[in-house]
Amino acid sequence: MNYVETHRKADPALSEKGYQQAKLLADYLIPHIENQASHPIRIITSPMRRTLETIRPTLEGLQKTVLPGDTHPKVHIIVCAFYHESEGCHIKEKPEEGMNPQEIRELMKDCVQDLDQDMEFVGFPDPNRGWYVLGTGPETRANSEKRAAKFYLWLNEYLDGQLAITDYDLFDAGVSIDGEEHEDENDKHSKRIRRRRTALLIGHGDFMSLVMKRLIAG
Predict the structure, then answer these.
(1) CA quadruple 17, 24, 30, 165: dihedral positive or negative?
(2) CB 3.0-4.6 Å disulfide test: which of 60, 117, 129, 195 passes with 133?
(3) In degrees, to the nearest 5, what angle opens at C-alpha 200 toward C-alphas 194 and 203?
(4) How far is CA 194 from CA 51, 169, 171, 191, 200, in A?
(5) In terms of pTM, does the model score above 0.85?
(6) Tens-digit pLDDT profile for residues 116-171
(7) 30 half-sphere exposure, CB direction, 13 A CA radius
(8) CB-facing half-sphere around the CA of 16: CA atoms within 13 A
């Protein structure tokens, strides 16, 4: 038997290297979010354990700082059940249902301020069961493509809905105001006069390649 057959887990945690990379991601994202993004940050994540663990250091860091006069919650997290990696959740062709919403809340409870208000779950077939509860085995490539199309449409509708909400952070970025002439668009960490409404997608390489094909094609 090869290594994959003997060590594979259906929904594995991050490796030690993965944890190190997650901390480096937090080191990059936190100053960007604090200085340039409006609140709440919209975080759209896969329900798989390794993506949730990837964003944990960033969430932990954001909870340690409070901006003066900022009455908005820091983050709003959407756990999307159909945003998982290609092939789904299985071991040796046998499906496992993955974590359910309560198990995900338990995993994230130390890094989310208000689990009821700041976290929502989309696309779970049964709120008491795991995200892959309807899986019958490894997801086929054709079904991954169909799911990518579904996620692409959902993402468009969600972002369009966000643009329909008028607030202080909705403005024409092509029209500058006094003081912005000194800002460098390539500097992702310095403070901005006007904060940008921001959404982060925490997903998986192979499935995101399928989504990106649709984003590029439009």
Answers:
(1) negative
(2) 129
(3) 170
(4) 30, 7, 9, 9, 19
(5) yes
(6) 999 999 999 999 999 999 999 999 999 999 999 999 999 999 999 998 988 878 77
(7) 19
(8) 0
